[in-house]
Every structure is written in C-alpha cells, then in structure tokens.
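Q: How would the structure tokens look for this protein?
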Amino acid sequence: MTDTWLIVGLGNPGAEYSHNRHNVGQMALDELASRVGGSFKAHKARAQVVEGRLGIGGPRVVLAKPMSYMNVSGGPVSGLAKFFDISPDHVIAVHDEIDIPFNTIRLKIGGGEGGHNGLRDISKALATKDYLRVRVGVGRPPGRMDTADYVLRDFGPAEKKELPFLLDEAADAVELLVTEGLLAAQQKFHPVKA
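A: Here is the predicted structure in token form.
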C-alpha cells in the first residue's frame, strides 16, 4: 500500500446539482484542487481526478469527484482505491451533513452513515466503515420539508455569503487530517464543551 491519500468529494454530477447543499463535498474539492495547483481530468473509474501534493513536500493526494450519482458513489471510490493502491484508512469522504449546523465542520473515522446513502454505498464497496469523514454541516431542513428536497436545493442567500469561508475551512480540515492526523484536526475543528 502507498502512503497516498484518496480524498473524495461527494455530490451529484451535472450543472443542475453543482450548487446544491448535497454537493458541498465536491465544492470543497474544488478548493483543494486550487491548493494543489491542478485541474480535474476524467479517470476510467468514473471520476474526475487531480493528483498532487498538499503543501510543500506534503503528502501525495488523489482528489476525486465521482461522476456517478451520490447514492452509488461506492463503485468509483472503490475503483480509485484499487487503482492507486490506497487502503481504506487513507480514504477521506468529504460530504454534506444535516445533523450538524451550517458552517460547522466535524471529523471522524468509521461509525454509522446517519441515513447518508452515499456513505452507505462507499462502506459497502470498501467492505468497511473504517474510512475518514469530513462532515460539512448544512443544517436541518426547515419545518416539515423533506430531507431529500432540502439537500437537493441550492444554499440560501445568507448561506451563500458564508459558503466560501466554510469551503476554505473544509479544505483546511482535510489538509490538517492528512498532515497531522485525526486527533489534531478534531482538536482544531471541534469546539471544546465547557
């Protein structure tokens, strides 16, 4: 196994989805791609990929946006992990999370998928839940709005003003995760309870 990291931004392909809450993972990958100085190119594993290094002399990373729909992200993720010889403990899924407030980042390894079908499909394809997740908070749907309708809508006007900062923070979280590890990243991005 190599010491390369596979960083996957979850979302749906196509311009009509590109600004949806569900695609915040892919938006964060665009920020990471600009940091490694690369542009996405098609890969045979049904994904758009950028290869590079995070930081000067930093770890080698493969940034990937599956070109499948969110609910079937597992095939492209598993295909890329095999192609680049990357073990699940070096896979990071960056995804939207309704169970944490908008403008919040949380990091974890393993655990449940919380009803997130993209994560469920990745866990099935990798045959383990033990991969890293950078959870980007998009908040809960208002009132009785259906969750699927909510995540498949664009961010609201107030959220759009904050979004560049959130994406920058998500990219920072990924960078810290690969350079200093999960604990250091959690200490920086998880608020300390009084």
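The helical segments are 24-36, 74-83, 117-126, 147-151, 157-180, 182-189.

The radius of gyration is 15 Å.

Upvote if useful.
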